[in-house]
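Fold it.
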Amino acid sequence: MNKILHFVFLTVAAVFLLSSCDDSDPYYGSGVQSEFNLLYSNRTGSSEKYGTLQLKYSGEEFYGADVYFEKQSDYTANIKLLNVVPGEAALIENVELVPSEGSGYTFGGSATTERGTALKYSGSVVVTEEGYENANKRLVLSLSDVVIPESSVFVSGTYPTMKIDARRETGYNGTFYSMPAYLDWKVKRDGKTESLISVAGIDMTLMVQRLLGSMLYLVLPDITFHKDGNLTVKYAALPDVDMADLMNGNVDAGMRQEINESPKNLVFYNVKRETRNSNLGERDYMYIRINIESLLKIVNIGNINIDLGGLLGGIDLGGDGLDLGEIINVLLDYYPKLNSLLNNGIPFLIEKNEVYVPEYGTSYFYGDYKLYIEENEIGWLIELLPDILDLLGVDLSSLLQSLIDDPTLAPILGPLLDNIVDDMKNTVSVKLGLYLQGENN
């Protein structure tokens, strides 16, 4: 497991290093000439020909941003925010400049971007005595009261993770059950389309969903989608619980370990309605993007000592023989897709979940929203999996089976896991995700 975690963080570092190699000159428009007309950056390893950026977003430090500043007249400027406002390269036009003592300006105001994000801004641009070339130009910028556009299909707020089988009062007849995990993975076996999670033709998906659902309930108490586009989670370590109890839903909130909360400006989200697959037409996608710079500030990549506020428990991942060069070679063919995921975010479909009400019997309603990713978005990751496992020297079947310590479940899941990697290569369709239950719904 340590080796896998080490690989994940080295992968992030590899893609980050590849993307940092793009050091092309920034493009400027038709503004007036000024020594302050620059790209200002606080990305790791950014060129000295860029200005220095100090950025706060919703009151917290923001890393990994590029901001264009360009004077349009003696007392106005345009500011373009790259990798900052979720879902857009936001342009703030006609910013009024107030000359400050010495060389520089201060500014402040409010704006609404082209996509509809409302925000307030304040800051200054000055020449300092630190740095050389353009690094002695410093842009200090604070963005506050940020509100990204609300989606017609999704409402921001806190979504607690529900226990499996939790009953919900509704206006319909029947009993409604919650289920946090959403899983639907079909593969080709012997000419037949079956669930990846099936044994002797018997679909075991619901059993695994229940297992994952109870684990999510214990380790992920809730997810909050903030109005400014931040996504934060409360999380805890997984307690020592029998697999059978997890599958049967014999868990409660009192079993949770110490609960922590992820920092802001680490993960962002935004919802767009667009066509990503011409065969499927327009659909609503939630893009979830990890701010890699913030992640690398938390993770000391030099020593690979993890300190995610307790999330991974300070695991030391050093000394397992993995080589960054080998990882880069494996990833090169997939770099454009990896880079797109890191820069634009992972596209999850977001749907209002429909209530299934049969004429007779039990009614089922697993959550207010269904958030999931499909095979057309992650098929290349499935293709990459054998190369990753080979590089790590990991037998996935053995690894998964080692996690099953329950004498009741081992005989059931064991045969399922024997050929799981080969089965994955014959994937027909995949849907992986969560059901979200609104706090006040």
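The radius of gyration is 25 Å.
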